[in-house]
Amino acid sequence: MAKLILFNKPYGVHSQFKKDHHDMATLAEFIDDKTMRVAGRLDKDSEGLLLLTDHGELNHAITTPPTAHNAKYTHAKYAKTYLVQVENIPTEAQIKALEQGVMLKDGKTLPAKVRQLDENALPIHLWPRNPPIRQRANIPTAWLEITITEGKNRQVRRMVAHVGLPCLRLIRHQIGRWQLDGLAVGESRAVHLDDQMLADMGIFNHSASRSPANKAHSSAYHAPKNQSKPNLKRTRPPKFGGRG
């Protein structure tokens, strides 16, 4: 059984429980269970869906970047989707560049899903941000929905900036199967996942096979009745001259 908390993180809140200074806003102001661990942080300036869990393997599955062997699986199970408000109106070339991957200082990003959305057709109810975004006269803004399968530091912000679209607001609204789904800003909701649900996500309970009793049982040798145990003493291999 795994516990998972879905939290709609407000702007300005750090994705941690510990305060580094007295006026620092943290998760401790919103979530009582300090045993939970964040699975995929959000920057202080970013908003939206934050997952916390007490299950180590689930945390690892959500936060581990995909490789050549598991990229397809990871994309289907734990892709992260963001709403990004940017300065200027994106061109087809800019959207295509984001989709194909852009070269950042720490490497090229994996292919992403990108589409432009009208503000009246966003998949979530947009709450007012405090403080509001900066807006410059005569410079239009637009909304993009970007889905990625990795988690480089401030990746989405750097991606849009790289193609000439400065980020004004960033909201994560979905991670895999989990969505904000009407969760108000600053609110959280707990869900519990049984072993079958975890198995459906490719996470299996190995606790039984790793228990000390089972480990001792599997490593012990049980000779049949009236049969002596084999001689398990290791013999030293013969010496050979030279090094080949």
From TrEMBL:
Belongs to the pseudouridine synthase RsuA family. Its EC number is 5.4.99.-. Residues 208-244 are annotated as: Disordered. PANTHER family: PSEUDOURIDINE SYNTHASE FAMILY PROTEIN-RELATED (PTHR47683), RNA-BINDING S4 DOMAIN-CONTAINING PROTEIN (PTHR47683:SF2). Residues 4-162 form the Pseudouridine synthase RsuA/RluA-like domain. Keywords: Isomerase, Lyase. This is Pseudouridine synthase. One of its GO terms (biological process) is pseudouridine synthesis.
